[in-house]
Structures are given as structure tokens and as C-alpha cells.
Amino acid sequence: MAVAGNSDGRVERSKAAVLAETYRQLTLSGLGGVSVDEVARNSGVAKTTIYRHWPSRSALLIDACSRMGGPQPAPDTGSVRTDLLALATAVAEQLWTAAWPSVLPSIIDAAERDPDIADMFAQLHQGNMAPFREVVARGRERGELRPDTVVDDVVTAVMAPLFYRRWFAKERVDDAFVHATVDHAIRSAQQT
Amino acid sequence: MAVAGNSDGRVERSKAAVLAETYRQLTLSGLGGVSVDEVARNSGVAKTTIYRHWPSRSALLIDACSRMGGPQPAPDTGSVRTDLLALATAVAEQLWTAAWPSVLPSIIDAAERDPDIADMFAQLHQGNMAPFREVVARGRERGELRPDTVVDDVVTAVMAPLFYRRWFAKERVDDAFVHATVDHAIRSAQQT
Amino acid sequence: MAVAGNSDGRVERSKAAVLAETYRQLTLSGLGGVSVDEVARNSGVAKTTIYRHWPSRSALLIDACSRMGGPQPAPDTGSVRTDLLALATAVAEQLWTAAWPSVLPSIIDAAERDPDIADMFAQLHQGNMAPFREVVARGRERGELRPDTVVDDVVTAVMAPLFYRRWFAKERVDDAFVHATVDHAIRSAQQT
Amino acid sequence: MAVAGNSDGRVERSKAAVLAETYRQLTLSGLGGVSVDEVARNSGVAKTTIYRHWPSRSALLIDACSRMGGPQPAPDTGSVRTDLLALATAVAEQLWTAAWPSVLPSIIDAAERDPDIADMFAQLHQGNMAPFREVVARGRERGELRPDTVVDDVVTAVMAPLFYRRWFAKERVDDAFVHATVDHAIRSAQQT
DNA sequence: CAGTAAACGAGACGGTACGTCCCGTCTTATG
DNA sequence: CATAAGACGGGACGTACCGTCTCGTTTACTG
């Protein structure tokens, strides 16, 4: 029967090749720099095939984007501060060195007008923030933070300055900045 | 003499019509959604003329963007907190209601690869933040903030959460959030 | 196999439509009056497609021109004079009534500067003169003309006055003129 | 009064500069290769001024063309044959070496559709042929040619082969060809 | 010698064409 | 039935030219 049709490995191979090339262009030039023709040329997969697997350029971009920035594991040192510091330092490092952050603005831009992309980005960001939320939640349960602490507010307090510095101020953050930010965020959730 | 004479108003009229239409498209679809042909069609200005005034589509976009978000006047109530609250509330309001914030991500995206656009954006953002910087500097001089306060850090502490909520979390901020953020930022600069 | 398969008739249809419209414009306004955009508009074939089949406007013109003035069959009445008269009369008729002769000057003009067009025109004219050459050659073999007759000289003697009258003198030739010209040409090749 | 207004030499100077540059472009690229903008650039005369003196590009071209190929003086050796030979040899020489013959096809092409250009060309050609007509007429008066000789037919018989060889056959004519052609033309007008 | 009118340069303007690149649809032949 | 190959219509890009226009300056003749 071969109902699922996965027996023929071609589909997987095509999709993989297309996504790989799409990802490559994505990191080079952002969402707007991805050309279906170019993807077809460089991946060796025919344009027809691409449009068979993804209904539109947009869908392909969504698919490729949603695989970006694989999930960090949440550290568990027993201290919110240490955990958050580890996570924040890693994110700060990536924000200025990895390829994928340069794609974020174009995704956010597209999300501004395309609900599907907005959904994808929400999920993507949700995934990326998961370790932060987990670490904060654990800290609250351990009593390090006030029981009425709103997890997202703490996460926001940690992440927002990093993103801001990456894209609005152009200055790269150093360890001191990350430390101060994390301390600041925690203190807010500890104060009476 | 009067060689440079602008007495022929055609240039002004053309430029104005083009910039207006460009701005319109900009707020509708971001940087990537602006088409020179479309601008020509809707503005009644010939494509040739557009290219006579701006050497490239990019230059036109830069010009149009740099006129966005006119400068807020800096309030001076005698209290940093009140001043910052007023400014932050206004910005928060605009972030979710005005047309131009939806263009920001596309600008930031373009800036990621185009140095000219990066420069324009730096200047634009500089301009938009000026009142904040002024208000904070005044507070520091009045002794409301520690003398070693770094102005930009305070501004970052106020703005970052607003931007983060606008584009990463999709939740609109309320007055309570703005208050908390401003208080938080000020407290950091007051603590011993 | 059949790799090259022309089974998809679209190419043929596109090419035909484009060439037809090009020919139409050609006869109306000469080489210089053919506009690719106009051809695209009137033929219903997209400009992109036109440039897919011809690398440049020039190539399209060359292609369209080289199909002009289909080959006359060479008559064979057994007499050079009768044969030549028939051919020359037909040419004279066409020179003043058909559409394509009006294109010749623009081709000759272009050939003055563009070697590709010069080649095309040489071949085109070669084709148009073929029946004349054949008829003269046969007459020489039959002994009607001296054995050392240079075929091209006879053809020139017949054609040159017709062309001259068409474009330099504006007077249309009549049968008497054609007769005199042909007789004259033949006599030159018969005299001792 | 100063009605004629020619006292101001600027008009003459402008016209001369424009015509010179036009002529230069004309011989380089034919009628179609003349660009008013380019003429303005290279002549130092403003486009406005050009259009002040000539109502259209076409008019400028007509003006420039009509000054081409200054009038040959008609030789008078006392023999039609010698006179014609001199003239024909000179023309043959020019056809392959001078600059202006390369413009003729584009003029003829334009004449095909533009009556004004047709008139200009008729007059131009008339002027160029004048010496030939004069020489033949004198020969007829002297009795060298039959009294019922049609002048234009003799001129045609001499010129047509030269033009034909220049533009249809690409082979340059030699002295022998010119001699044969002239002899041939004269003989036709002598025969009973 | 001041005033006027023509000629001029500089260049803005709307419009059409050029040839290229991309998008998303389509048609066909091959595995 | 997935695929490669590629034709197709459509839209945008940035450049060149055409002929019209507006403006301020120079030049020469006038009163």
C-alpha cells in the first residue's frame, strides 16, 4: 500500500535540500532575500517541487524559520540567579555572533502584516523563551521569588534590554550589563 | 545672483507628493512593500522624476523614513518621574496606535545589511530618544538621580520593555506596566 | 526519450504571435519603429517570454526580417529573356505594392553598423536573388549567353535600375522600362 | 528697428554648433543614432535652444542632412564619355570612403514614412545628380547622343549599378566596372 | 546711459522603451 | 505519483531619450 508515501525517500530529500538552502539564504539576507528561483537553482530541486510541498513562498519561509534557534536546555543549579545568568549570557553571546538573530527583524516585520507568520513567530519565540520561564517558575516554587511573581514579567525584564541593545542601541552588551540586568530583574520579584 | 533659487516650486511639489505616497505605502507594507512604480502611479510624479531626486529606491526609503516620528518636545515638570511617565506613556500609546511603529522592524531588518540604512536608523532613533535623554540628564543635575547615572542606561530601562512587549510579546502594555517600568528604572539610578 | 520534444505547443504559439506582430510593426515603421513593449502588448505575449526566445531586440528583428520576402520559384521557359522578364516584372510589381520593400532601407541602414544584421541581409538578399541567378546560369549553359558571362553582373544589370527607381527616383517603373532593362542586360552578355 | 536681428551672432553660433555636432553623430550612427540630448551635451547648446531653432528632432535632422554632400562641379571636357567617367569615378570613390553615404540608407528609410524627409531627400539627390544631368544634356546637344535621349535614363544607367553594389552586393567596384557601366549607358543612348 | 527684448543655460517634468530579475502557475516527460 | 525542466504572464527595477515647461542670466539694440 505504502499509504503514507514516505517509503519513497525523495520527498524527504527534496524538503531537506530546500530547507537547507532556504536557511542559508535566510541567514545571509533575511526573509526578503530569499528567492524561490534561487533556492531551486542552488538546491537542485525544481521550483515545481517546491511549490508542491509549500503552497507559497511565505509558507516555505515560515517552515524554514520555525526550525531556527533550536531549544536551549534549561539549567538547574538550584539558584534562579545562576540559572538566569547562564541562560542570559548564552543568549547575549548568540545575539551578537550567531547567524539567526539577524533574521529576526525581518520575521517580526513580516509578522506585522501576515498573521500566519505572526503565529509562527509567537510559537518560535515561545520555544526560545521556554527555558527562561522554566527557570523562573522553579525559583518561584523554591521560594526565591515572591509567590505572586508573574513569570513573563521577569523574563521580559531579563530579555528586553538585551534585544534593545542588539537592535536599537548598537552597543554590544558585556558581562557586567548582563549581570546587572539579571540582578535587577530578580530584585523586582523579591521586593516586598 | 541667487543662483540656487528654489523659485520654481515644482521640485518641492514633486518631492512632497512622492514622500507622502512613499510614507503611505511604508505604513501599509513596510520598507519591502514600497514600489517605485507604484509610488509614481499614485503620486502623479513620473518615475523618471523620482530617480532624478533620489538616486535609488533605497535612498528614497531612507529619506522617507528619516522624516517619520516627529520629535516629541521634552516636558519639564521638575520631576524626573513625572517627565518620564509622560514621555513613556505617549510612546506606549503610539507604539500600539500610530502607523509608523509598524515600519520599524523592516527598517531594523534593512539596517542589518545596509550601512546607509543603519546610519539613518541610528539618527532617527537618536532623535526619538532625545527627549528621554534630556529629561534624565535634567533629573541627574537636579540631584534626583545619582551623579554617576549613565543616561542611556536609564533610557534603555524605560524603553526596552515597551519595545519588547510591542514586538516579542504581543500583549499591549497598560498604564500600570508603564508606571512599574518607569519606577523601576528610576529606582536603579537612585539606589546607593 | 524524445528529450527535445516540442510537444508543448506554447513555444511555437508564442514565437508565431511575436513574429507576426513584429512583422506588422516592421512594415508599418521599419526596424526602428519596432518596440518590444508594443510587440508584447499587441501579441499577448509577455515581454519576459519574448526575451526568453530572443536575446535582444536586435535578434528579434533579425529573425523577423529573415522570414520576409519568401523565395520566388525560378521559371524555366527555355528562354533567358522570358524567364528574366517574368522575374523582373514580379519584383517590380512587389517593389511598389508589397509591404516588405519599405523595410529594406532600415535593414540596410542597420547593416551599415551591425555586422549581424549585415549577415542576415546578405543571406536574405542572396535568397531573393537566387531565382535570377539560376535563370541566368541556365541561359549561359544553353548558349544563349556568352560562356564567360558573369552571372552576378547580369543580375545586377537587371535589378539595379529597379531598386534605383524605387528609392532614388520616386517614379514607378512600367513594363516598357522593365523590358528595356532586361533586353539591355541580356545584350551585354551576348555581344562579342 | 534691427528687424533682421542677425546682428546678434549668438543664433548663428548656436545653429552652427548644433548642426556640426548633429552631422558628427549622423555620420557615426545614421539618422537613428542622433540624440537631441547628446547633441545638446556635446555642442554646449542647451536643449531648449535647439528646440527653439528646430521644431522637432526630425526638422533638425532634415536641416543637417540637406547640407550633406556638397555639389560637385560638372566637368566639361567636350566628351560625354570622359565627363561621365570622371563623375562616376568620383562618386564610386566616395561611396566607399566618405562618411556621408553611410547615412543615406537611414534617410531613405525615414523618407519611406515621412513626406518632409522624402522631399528633403529628393532635393538632396537632385542636387547630387545635377552634374550628371548637365553633362548628359550637353552631350545630347553636341550630337554625341541621340536627340531623343532621356537624360534621366542615362543617369540611372550610370548610377544604379554603383548604388546597388554599395548596398546590395557588398563588393566594391573597381575602375573596370565603372568604365563598363559608363560605356554601357552611353551605348544605349547612341544605338539606333 | 538706463531700459527692454530676444537668445540663452540649466534643468525639472511626464512619458515610453529598454533588458533583467523575481513570483506563482502551467505543461510535459522521466523515474 | 514525485520529480526535473522549463514556458508563461505579470510586475518591478534603474536608465536613456523625447519634447515641454519654467526660470534667471547674458547680450545687444533702443530711447
Q: Can you describe this structure?
A:
The structure is a homotetramer of 192-residue chains. Chain A is 69% helix and 0% strand. The first copy, chain A, has 192 residues and is mainly alpha-helical. The first copy, chain A, has 2 domains: 10-65, Homeodomain-like (Arc Repressor Mutant, subunit A, Orthogonal Bundle); 80-190, Tetracycline Repressor, domain 2 (Orthogonal Bundle). In chain A, helix 5 (80-97) runs antiparallel to helix 7 (115-141) and helix 7 crosses helix 8 (151-167). The longest helix of chain A has 27 residues, at 115-141. Chain A starts with 9 loop residues before the first helix and ends with a helix. Chains in contact: A-B, C-D. The interface between C and D is medium-sized, with 30 and 31 residues. Chain B binds a DNA duplex (31 and 31 nucleotides) through residues 2-3, 5, 7-8, 10-11, 14, 35-38, 40, 44-49, 51-53, 55-57.
Task: State the gist of this model.
Chain A has 192 residues and is mostly helical. Chain A contains 9 helices and no strands.
Major interchain interface with per-chain residue totals:
A-B, 31 and 30 residues
Major sheet characteristics of chain A: none
Q: What is the domain total for the residues of chain A?
A: 2
Uncertain segments of chain A are 1-6
What percentage of amino acids of chain A are in beta strands? under 5%
- N-to-C SSE string of chain A, H for helix and E for strand: HHHHHHHHH
**CATH topology assignment of the largest domain in chain A:** Tetracycline Repressor, domain 2
Proportion of residues in helical segments of chain A: 55-70%
Work out the number of β strands of chain A.
Answer: 0
Total count of helical runs of at least 4 residues of chain A:
9
Reported CATH architecture of the largest domain in chain A: Orthogonal Bundle
Alpha carbon gap, first and last residue of chain A: 66 Å
What class do helices, strands and sheet pairing of chain A give?
mainly alpha
Our Rg estimate of chain A from Cα atoms comes to 20 Å
State the oligomer: homotetramer
What is the CATH homology-level superfamily of the largest domain in chain A?
Tetracycline Repressor, domain 2
General form of chain A: elongated
